[in-house]
UniProtKB/TrEMBL annotation:
GO terms for molecular function: acyltransferase activity. PROSITE patterns: HEXAPEP_TRANSFERASES (PS00101). It comes from Paracoccus thiocyanatus. Keywords: Acyltransferase, Repeat, Transferase. This is Uncharacterized protein. Signal peptide: none annotated. Pfam families: Hexapep. InterPro entries: Hexapep, Hexapep_transf_CS, Trans_hexapeptide_repeat, Trimer_LpxA-like_sf. Belongs to the transferase hexapeptide repeat family.
Amino acid sequence: MHGQVFVGRYCSIGRRVSIGAAAHDMTGLTTSPRLAKRGQDGTCTASELERIGARPHRIDMPTIIESDVWIGDGAVIFPGVRIGTGAVIGANTIVRRDVEPYAVMAGSSSVPLRYRFSEAIRAELLASRWWDMPHDTLSRLPLGNICRLLPENGSIAQQDGFASKPRYSLSLWKKNLTAYLKARLRRTG
């Protein structure tokens, strides 16, 4: 793992996975780290990036892997990428862009092959924040079959066992991180 990486709860990560993979800054004369030591001449401003036709680099941004993500062997996750809760990243997949919750990704395309569940079920699962539940409570639920966990009527969060107050809050962490990044961007121009 490289740089700032956050990994949520209940993730499965295969062998030879590169998260927050190092990348060369391409805004200087050369990409060689031997000649162009990153940051010694300052980073490009937004107007400078526009002038040279370059995209802002995400090298300094944190890589966020939310809860219940499965990353297959040999996957490469670029810096600054956010992988949503419940996503599946296939073996040897290259992830350059954010991945939506419960999306199934494979290869180097930035388009999901499919989703694990319907849109309504994905919304229910995200709203339930099940990953915040104590492990002993989770272990008593029928987790191997999503149909047995879902109520016929009402929401998942209303079922017995679902905690009303999370012990851990990724949303609070993301809120603080967003404020930090916005302040940092204002300082660098």
